[in-house]
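Thread: quick sanity check before group meeting

JM: Hey all, I'm pulling together slides for Thursday and realized we never actually wrote out the predicted structure for the chain we discussed last week. Dropping the sequence here so it's in one place. If anyone has concerns about the input, flag it before I start.
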Amino acid sequence: MDIKRQKNQLRKKILHERDCLSETHRAEASRGISEVILELPSFQHSKAVAIYMSFGSEFQTHILLSEALRLGKAVALPKIESASHVISFRSWNGKAEELLEGRWGIREPDPVRSELVELRHIDFILVPGVAFTDQGSRLGYGGGYYDSAMSKLPESSVSVAAAFSLQIVPEIPIEDHDLSVHSVISG
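JM (edit): ok, ran it. Output follows.
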């Protein structure tokens, strides 16, 4: 079986299982995972963090976002650039009215009301995904947006993924362009 088919089968299986988790379970697990991430030295010492806006049955990022803002960190949210089909990161001050519905219904910063944050300024990045290994291998949603962005981050930047326990798998089919995260926090 070819690697793309293996990835698609694993993606479909894990997404189905994640969608079947109760809202209560997702909220409780997200709270516990957030508490661990907030204690990471890489998060605590960061000045600029990139955190995605969760959607669907993903790990819920609202606790991390609100704490990062409360701690005075510069917060950057991802935005899919429709013209170039790449991901950029834009500043966000915590105001919901400054977000627009982007691709796939994910809330993104309004480019008129936010500034572009250069990747070289990001100290800590929370990376979304479908499945992960304990060693940091990652199966994303298939667009390659985060692999491309992570390849341009400074070496000093720390990439972390948050996952529900069912998203941790023993092995992920990997291609040359697939990048790992530094650590995976699960619960």
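AS: nice. Residues 3-186 form a domain with the Rossmann fold fold (CATH 3.40.50.10420). The helical segments are 3-19, 23-39, 41-44, 62-70, 145-150.
JM: adding both to the slides.
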